[in-house]
Design brief:
By secondary structure, the chain is an alpha/beta fold. It contains 13 helices and 13 strands. The strands form 3 sheets. Strands 2-8-7-6-5-3-4 form a 7-stranded mixed β-sheet, with helices on both faces. A 4-stranded antiparallel β-sheet has the order 9-10-13-12, with helices on one face. α4 packs parallel to α10, α7 packs parallel to α8 and α11 packs parallel to α13. It is globular.
Length: 354
């Protein structure tokens, strides 16, 4: 009986299955290898005593938004806090699109853009990137305007490829389309040559920039994300989000962590160095199984392997040896952990492609 009441659109989906196998070294989810320093942890612990656990959280996460706005030089009216970027993507798609509206996604990219668009009943238009996973923005402008898409989403730098579009190209695209443009800058902190368009918030009323505290800020466990846009779009999203979407603990902890941005920046610089080290060491390996290693502006390395079967075998073998990485068909994505974690991965990886 119940099977008939579950919508067909859900029956056809495969559940997202994160790797929950306990392993010593996790290089599969693009998380930061660094937890907050003892000084910050002590501050977090002390803050617990001031939390009113019996009360609902601030519906607008005002103090958290204020701390975020200070870091990124924004007005608080241009920021909305969310329970991770995923929630904000879901709200944007379900709230700003109506059934039958089209949304354009430049593929390959973060899978949740297409997922939430599908659930919202939107018509997904896939614009394929080049062989090197770059976006042809002239072609994308034509595609969006010809299709009448109301919404366009892409990550910059891109997950899973690491490619980063130039700021000028992104701005030209924003100006060139009659659609809301969502630029997900989850990995922008790792880009040595920042191409962020955050400072364009307010200048273009069709621009939304997404940020997360799950990557460079080392706070994936808090599930905190931010939508940055013109005041009108922010007010629209506030109307349709859950009243108390960000819990009080995450609000308080997030505010404290943001107040220690110098520590975040120092950790980010170490991660940037480790990404360069990881890519450089992988490039020195002579093996027919390594087809291509892509340039990256994120906290991971993306590479082509000789076959999907070989890539899957490498992933499974490394798991048995205590190292988790991500496999996507014939490609592997390896997060840059600590230098020690990178060295352990490299040693075990060499055994697989020797």
């Amino acid at each position: 009986m119940i099977e008939k009441l579950i919508p067909e659109k859900i029956n056809g989906l495969e559940a997202y299955s994160p790797n929950l196998t306990p392993v010593p070294i996790r290089l599969d989810a693009n998380e930061s290898p660094f937890t907050p320093s003892k000084a910050v942890l002590d501050e977090l612990a002390a803050a617990v005593y001031g939390i009113d656990f019996n009360r609902y959280p601030d519906p607008y996460a005002s103090e958290l938004v204020s701390a975020f706005s200070q870091v990124f030089s924004l007005d608080t009216k241009n920021v909305v806090a969310g329970n991770g970027s995923d929630e904000l993507i879901s709200i944007i798609v379900s709230g700003l699109l109506e059934a039958g509206d089209s949304v354009t996604v430049a593929m390959p990219d973060f899978s949740m853009y297409a997922f939430y668009s599908y659930l919202a009943g939107a018509r997904e238009i896939r614009f394929e990137k080049t062989e090197l996973f770059e976006i042809d923005f002239d072609g994308l402008i034509s595609s969006v305007n010809e299709s009448g898409s109301k919404l366009v989403m892409f990550s910059n730098p891109c997950n899973p490829t690491g490619w980063c579009a130039k700021r000028g190209d992104v701005e030209r695209f924003i100006k060139g389309v009659n659609a809301i443009v969502v630029v997900d800058e989850a990995y922008m902190e790792f880009s040595r040559e920042s191409e962020s368009v955050m400072d364009l918030i307010g200048r273009y009323d069709n621009l939304i920039v997404l940020k997360t505290m799950s990557k460079a800020f080392g706070s994936a466990g808090l599930r905190l994300g931010f939508m940055c846009a013109c005041e009108e779009l922010c007010e629209a999203v506030k109307k349709i989000k859950s009243p108390y979407n960000v819990n009080t603990v995450s609000q308080v902890f997030g505010r404290i962590i943001l107040s220690h941005y110098d520590e975040i920046k120092a950790n980010t610089e170490i991660i940037q160095e480790n990404v360069g080290y990881l890519k450089g060491e992988l490039s020195k390996i002579s093996s027919a199984d390594i087809v291509r290693i892509y340039d990256t502006s994120a906290n991971f390395v993306f590479m082509d392997i000789s076959s999907a079967e070989k890539a899957a075998k490498i992933k499974e073998s490394l798991m048995k040896k205590g190292v988790a990485i991500r496999c996507m068909g014939h490609r592997l994505r390896i997060t840059a952990g600590t230098r020690e974690e990178c060295d352990i991965f490299l040693a075990k990886f060499k055994e697989e492609v020797a």
